[in-house]
Amino acid sequence: MSLDSEQLKDGKSCLLIIDMQYDFINGSLKVNGGEEIVPVISDFLKKNGNQFDLIVFTKDDHPSNHISFASSHKDKKPFEEYAYVSEKDPNHTFKSCLWPDHCVVGTHGNEIHSDLTKLIDNGKINNTKTLVVGKGMDPKREYYSCFNDVLEEHNTDILDVLKKENISNVFVCGLAYDYCVLNSAKSSKKFGFNTYVIDNMTRKIDPNWEFNEPGIEKIQM
Ligand code: VGL
Ligand code: ZN
After folding, report:
1. In this structure, which ligand is nearest to the CA of 72?
2. 180 lines ligand 1 (CB under 6 A)
3. Spatial distance between the Cα atoms of 218 and 216, rounded to a whole number of angstroms
């Protein structure tokens, strides 16, 4: 799909580049094929960055004792099931799994790939304003969506930013397709943005998972 298509003509557009950090690309929580999409996203930004009104990079920013790490729990291993429970309402839970330690603030694995960050010049890529939004700093809260935590009790400021910038269309790419890309796209849709996932610029953790979200269009760019 070329970027002259209708999607970008109606209203302002934001490109959300999710968690393109070394731990997901070639580190402790390496996503299959993650390395392949670095040059794809980089070339796309060079060619089409100027077509967007805002480019947001998100980061998983965890403390070393984060609740999503198996190492933070007694007798738990990475990829074992785990249920997050609301402190306010014990009946409110979110079932997921635990992870190897990843994206700890201050480590190399936490950094966004330099082939992408080196495109940022004076806060801009191709004249489009860029922004970096972190999530998952609170040791007790897990975030998949870059808008809010898995229990939907805390928000980042990304919704306010998109509203302030008058964004109508949100295009999501990055890692991982079945976790942070999926859940960020679902939030974006829920908050009323026309939402697209860029299928060729994302990779999944679970090989058996397929994207299927009514109301969110899967596109190639
Ligand atoms: C993610 C698992 C744990 C992601 C973050 O960015 O998709 N996945 N933390
Ligand atoms: Zn994480």
Report:
1. 2
2. yes
3. 7
ipTM of the modeled complex: 0.98
pLDDT at 187: 98
The catalytic site residues sit at 19, 135, 180
Nearest to 203 by CA among 68, 26, 15: 26
Q: Please count the other Cβ atoms lying within 10 Å of the Cβ belonging to residue 135.
A: 28
- The set of residues, in sequence order, having a beta carbon less than 8 Å from that of 34 and lying 6+ positions away, is 24, 25, 26, 175, 176, 203
pLDDT of residue 9: 59
Mutate to test the pocket of ligand 1, among 23, 175, 177, 183 (most ligand atoms within 8 A of CB): 175
For the chain, the structural domain boundaries read: 10-65+102-219
Residue type at position 165: E
Q: Could you give phi then psi for residue 174, rounded to 5 degrees?
A: 110, -150
- Angle (CA) 4 161 116, round 5°: 60
Average pLDDT, consecutive stretches of 10 residues, N- to C-terminus, the chain (221 residues): 58 98 98 98 97 98 98 97 97 98 98 98 96 98 98 97 98 98 98 98 98 96 93
pTM for the model stands at: 0.96
> Ligand 1 pocket, 142 CB below 6 A?
no
Task: Tell the CATH topology of 10-65+102-219.
Answer: Rossmann fold (3.40.50)
